[in-house]
Task: inverse folding
């Protein structure tokens, strides 16, 4: 008979969902009943892992796919554009909160991404523990570094305040619909902030960033939550043939992030690979890259499991999402980060500081010559490969999912 029901709730792109799916799969194998609530586009992936699915509205994802959404995440003033994008969307937030409430029924414990806005309030109403989880160090203030959601390497004495500022800003985005929902749907005082978290789970590797010494005992760094390569997955014949036909290529992909002109970006990447004298595998992802005509020495694929693909590469070029950054270094490969927004510049600086890749190239400043120079440096510098290899060896001894399950199990006793 399954153990207590643990409900996981997350929203966003694949990088926001896949860690929760890895945790859900691990919890199910450990004997718990598990339900993962997220956008409908991920239902098949969730159920393929044997995890029960519950739908949360995918309206925010649909917003990102619009021209306005693409401009917001790729433009110069991303924060302001994103705030304008969600302004006046109280009904959208209300639908999300209602769906979260339905998905949480019967739960003994919640684990929520911060984008799942109702988690702490649902935990207060149900009287159950709730953990907040994120694959980056943004859930608790620290003096060690600024909030990774801000574009600063160091703010000195203001580091801790920057975290508090960003946490409060996130709370304010949907404050009005939250208050109305608390009062009308949950019967709680409208101004309440929900139950204090039972713990904060940072699902990234301490090999990439050590745990800050000033975090309290309830703030954890578990290691990354990763899914193994599916046992039934086999590479397409054209990928196998391409890899066998020459030296290891360079991977280029921007994951779930769309760009305003995928064909132009694909041409830029192809030119950079040619200038660097490297073969390449371009992953089109959710539409960030496209090639209108075949190019010698380049294979275009929709996607492939990073755990299988990255160890076969000479280097990896990507947007700097937490999961892709982890996958590149876990494979022991030098990484070139081209950050768009959010925490991506933070991870770019970390990779550079660890010596496992060149200086990050902000996406809006990306040119073929700059990318080519970074590729030549990553592939040609033995020190970068050695640094990536050392990080990979440390990551090999971690089991982030098992550590998270240990913490959650203790909360249920």
Result:
């Amino acid at each position: 008979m399954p153990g207590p029901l643990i409900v996981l709730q997350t929203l966003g792109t694949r990088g926001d969902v896949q860690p929760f799916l890895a945790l859900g799969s691990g919890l199910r194998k450990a004997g718990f009943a598990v339900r993962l609530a997220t956008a409908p586009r991920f239902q098949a992936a969730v159920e393929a892992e044997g995890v029960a699915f519950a739908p949360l509205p995918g309206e925010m994802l649909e917003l990102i796919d619009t021209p306005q959404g693409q401009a917001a995440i790729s433009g110069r003033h991303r924060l302001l554009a994103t705030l304008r994008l969600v302004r006046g969307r109280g009904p959208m937030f209300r639908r999300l909160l209602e769906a979260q409430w339905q998905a949480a029924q019967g739960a003994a414990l919640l684990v929520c991404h911060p984008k799942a806005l109702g988690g702490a309030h649902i935990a207060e109403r149900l009287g159950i523990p709730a953990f907040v989880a994120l694959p980056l160090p943004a859930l608790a203030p620290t003096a060690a570094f600024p909030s990774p959601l801000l574009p600063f390497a160091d703010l000195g004495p203001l580091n801790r305040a920057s975290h508090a500022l960003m946490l409060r800003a996130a709370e304010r985005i949907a404050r009005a619909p939250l208050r109305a929902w608390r009062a009308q749907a949950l019967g709680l005082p409208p101004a309440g902030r929900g139950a204090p978290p039972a713990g904060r789970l940072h699902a990234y590797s301490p090999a990439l960033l050590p745990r800050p010494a000033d975090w309290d005992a309830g703030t954890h760094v578990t290691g990354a939550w990763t899914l193994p390569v599916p046992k039934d997955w086999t590479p397409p014949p054209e990928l196998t043939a391409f890899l066998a036909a020459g030296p290891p290529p360079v991977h280029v992909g921007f994951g779930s992030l769309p760009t305003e002109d995928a064909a132009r970006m694909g041409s830029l990447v192809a030119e950079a690979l040619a200038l660097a004298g490297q073969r390449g595998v371009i992953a089109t992802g959710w539409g960030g890259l496209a090639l209108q005509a075949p190019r010698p020495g380049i294979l275009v694929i929709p996607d492939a499991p990073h755990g299988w693909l990255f160890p076969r590469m000479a280097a990896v070029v990507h947007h700097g999402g937490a999961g892709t950054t982890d996958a590149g270094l876990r494979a022991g490969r030098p990484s070139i980060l081209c950050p768009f927004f959010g925490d991506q510049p933070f991870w770019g600086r970390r990779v550079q500081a660890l010596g496992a890749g060149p200086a990050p190239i902000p996406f809006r400043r990306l040119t073929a010559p700059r990318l080519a120079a970074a590729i030549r440096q990553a592939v040609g510098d033995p020190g970068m490969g050695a640094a990536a290899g050392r990080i990979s060896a440390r990551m090999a001894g971690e089991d982030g999912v098992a550590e998270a399950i240990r913490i959650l199990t203790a909360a249920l006793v």
Q: What stands out?
A: Residues 14-29 form the longest helix (16 residues). The mean pLDDT is 92.
